[in-house]
Write a structure and sequence with these properties.
Helices cover 0% and strands 46% of the residues. With 119 residues, it is an all-beta fold. The strands form two sheets. It has a six-stranded mixed β-sheet with strand order 2-10-9-4-5-6, with no helix packed on it. It has a four-stranded antiparallel β-sheet with strand order 1-3-8-7, with no helix packed on it.
Amino acid sequence: QVQLVESGGGLVQPGGSLRLSCVASGSIFRIYAMGWYRQAPGKQRELVAAITSGYRTSYADSVKGRFTISRDNAKKMVYLQMNSLKPEDTAVYYCNRGGGSDYSPTDYWGQGTQVTVSS
């Protein structure tokens, strides 16, 4: 059974940075792509960033140049480094295990971590 646990959220001022972490268990982590999503109040969950098993990355236009996704297969971890944060980045952030080596969403979700960007 796949389990994902996110951490690292919190309250940060506009322009600040946060690093989110997600640890996975229960599957062969290195062969799967991983994704980070976010969901703001009253909005649909949206894909923010994804990383393939071959370390190829992709980003939503709204976060390009500010967010960086990375992975550490030995630790079964995926990270989201978020810089130059804006109030519109406020949301619950979730990690998702992909369905294969290239990213496609699955039903494997963590519990989410709240990110609030406010002065």
